[in-house]
Recover the amino acids of this structure.
C-alpha cells in the first residue's frame, strides 16, 4: 500500500470507460458489483472530493501548491493573508485527503522545529471512478480469509489495518507532536473519506464516534463481516499515530447487525 488517498486495494482509476465484464462463480453469483454499489461508490467519491475542495480558499491553496515546488504553512499564510493556523488547517485537510504530500523542510531558517513542506502528491486531480477489478480482488481476499480460522483472520485483519493506519498517520504528520483527540478524529474522518468511507466525526454523550455512510467493501462486508476488522484496525492505527499512544476503539457495523457503521472512542 502507498499514498494517502487511494492506496492498495482501494486505488481508483481515472476516466475508465472500458465495458464491464460479468464473471459468474460456480454458484452463479456475479463478480461485477451491482448498480447500487456502483452508485454508492460514485457518491463516496463525490463526498471525498467535496470534503477536500469544497472550500474556495482551499481550492486556491491547492492550485498554488500543485503548480510550484510546494509550500509551508507560513508561506501559504503570507500568500493568502491567512492566520498560520488557518493555513495549516487547509493544508492538513488536503494532506489527509491524499492530495498533498508532507515532508520535513530541514532547510528552514531560524531556531525551533523544522517546518513541514506540502507538495502535490502523485494522485490525479481528475474525478476518479471505482476500478471494476477491485470487486474481484476483494472477493479473492474474502475467499482467502475463509480458509483461515475466523479468530485468526480477524486478528490478522486488525493488525494489517493498524499497520496501515500508522503509516498513513506518519505521512500526514511527519515529525509532528501528538494531536488532541478532537483534531485527530477530524483528520481520521478526512482520511477515511478519501478511502471511500464517506466518514464524519460525531459527538455522542461522553464519547466521540466516526460514522461512515459508505463501505468500500460493498456487499462483501455483509457476507464476510471479518472484513470490518480492517476498518477497526485502520482507525486504531490512525489514532495511535496521530495521538501518540494506544487509543481503544469499539466498532459497530451494519454487517454485524448494528444500525450504523461507526468507530467509537472514549
Amino acid at each position: 500500500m502507498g499514498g494517502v488517498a487511494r492506496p492498495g486495494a482501494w486505488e481508483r482509476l481515472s476516466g475508465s470507460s472500458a465495458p464491464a465484464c460479468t464473471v459468474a462463480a460456480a454458484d452463479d453469483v456475479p463478480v461485477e458489483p451491482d448498480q447500487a454499489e456502483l452508485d454508492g461508490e460514485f457518491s463516496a467519491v463525490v463526498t471525498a472530493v467535496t470534503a477536500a475542495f469544497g472550500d474556495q480558499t482551499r481550492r486556491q491553496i491547492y492550485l498554488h501548491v500543485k503548480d510550484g515546488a510546494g509550500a509551508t504553512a507560513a508561506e501559504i499564510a503570507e500568500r493568502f493573508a491567512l492566520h498560520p493556523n488557518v493555513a495549516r488547517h487547509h493544508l492538513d485537510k488536503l494532506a489527509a485527503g491524499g492530495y498533498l504530500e508532507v515532508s520535513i523542510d530541514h532547510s528552514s531558517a531560524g531556531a525551533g522545529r523544522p517546518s513541514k513542506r506540502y507538495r502535490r502528491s502523485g494522485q490525479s486531480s481528475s474525478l476518479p471512478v471505482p476500478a471494476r477489478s477491485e470487486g474481484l480482488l476483494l472477493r479473492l481476499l474474502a475467499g482467502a480469509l475463509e480458509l483461515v480460522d475466523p479468530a485468526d483472520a480477524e486478528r490478522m485483519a486488525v493488525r494489517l489495518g493498524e499497520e496501515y493506519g500508522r503509516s498513513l498517520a506518519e505521512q500526514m504528520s511527519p515529525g509532528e507532536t501528538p494531536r488532541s483527540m478532537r483534531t485527530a478524529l477530524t483528520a481520521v474522518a478526512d482520511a477515511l473519506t478519501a478511502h471511500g468511507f464517506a466518514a464524519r466525526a460525531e459527538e455522542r454523550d461522553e464519547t466521540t464516534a466516526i460514522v461512515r455512510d459508505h463501505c468500500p467493501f460493498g456487499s462483501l462486508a455483509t457476507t464476510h463481516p471479518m472484513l470490518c476488522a480492517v476498518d477497526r484496525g485502520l482507525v486504531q492505527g490512525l489514532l495511535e499515530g496521530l495521538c501518540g499512544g494506544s487509543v481503544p476503539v469499539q466498532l459497530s457495523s451494519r454487517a454485524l447487525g448494528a444500525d450504523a457503521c461507526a468507530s467509537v472512542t472514549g
User: Anything to note?
Assistant: The CA atoms of residues 96 and 187 lie 6 Å apart.
